[in-house]
Amino acid sequence: MNNLLTARIQNKMTSFSKGQRLIAKYILEHYDKVAFMTAARLGATVGVSESTVVRFATEIGYTGYPELQQAMQEMIRNKLTSVQRMEVTANRIGDNDILDSVFNQDIDIIRRTMEETSHENFYKAADAISSARKIYILGARSSLALATFLSYYMHLLFENVLLVQSTSEGEIFEQMIRIDENDVVIGISFPRYSRKAVKAMNFARKRGAKVVAITDSTLSPLAEPADYLLLARSDIASIVDSYCAPLSLINALIVTIALKKSNEVKKVFQNLEDIWDEYGVYEKVDEHKSEPNV
C-alpha cells in the first residue's frame, strides 16, 4: 500500500471518531476494493454515512473523496491481475445494465482526460512529430492496437514512419538502431505497463531522440524518459482495457498534424482517392437504393 496514504491514516488514527476508525481500518485492509467504491458504497459497507466518508477524506489531507479514491487507484494501477479486474468489474456494474454502465464509464474517462491533459505538451508534441526526420511508433500487448491505428494515419501524412515490432527486445533495438536527435519516438503503454516499451523509450532518449509518451499517469514508467507526456485515462478496473480516451487523444493528434500540413495532405488524399477509384478499393453504396422490407 502507498506509504504516504498509510502514514496519513496512522498519524490521524488517535483523533478519528468511531466511524472514521471503521473507515480507516477497512481501507488499510481492503484498499484494492475501496479504490473502486463510491463514497456511499464505502459508507454502507462499514456502517457509516456518506458524509462521514467525505469528512474522513478531508481529515487526512485530501480535497475530497474523489482525490482519496484516485490516490488508492494510482497505487494499484499496475498490480491488478486479470481475475481481480473481472471481480471489480462485476462489483461495479452490479445489477445495472451492462451496456449503459460501460458507456457511462467511458464517457467519464474521456471527460477526466480532457481535464487532465496538458494542451501545451500536446501541441509541442505535434510540432516535434511534424518536424521529425523519422517517426518511430511503439505499443506492446493491447496498446499495439493504438499504435497500429496511429501508424496507419501517420503513414498517410509522412514518408518515413516505422511501426516498431515488439516481438522481442532484441528486435526492438535492431529496428531503432539508427535513431538519433533528428527523430521522434511515440511510445504507448497503459497498466499493466510493458517492460519492452519502457526500455525502448529509455533507449531512444539516450540516443537523443524526442520522446512522446502516451500513457495514463505521471507515475507511469514511460513518463520519466518523455520529453512530451500526453496523459489519457484508461479504465484499469475493466475486464478489457478501455482505450476510448487514448484513441480520442490520438485522433486529436492526427487531426492537429494533418491541419498543420494541410496543403501536402490534400494532395496525398486526392492521389489516394484517384487510386482507390481506379482499383475499386471500396465498395460503392447506392444511396438511392430502397431499404429492404423488414
TrEMBL record:
Residues 3-79 form the HTH rpiR-type domain. Keywords: DNA-binding, Transcription, Transcription regulation. The keyword Translocase does not apply. The keyword Ubl conjugation does not apply. CDD domains: SIS_RpiR. Residues 125-263 form the SIS domain. This is MurR/RpiR family transcriptional regulator. It comes from Anaeromassilibacillus senegalensis.
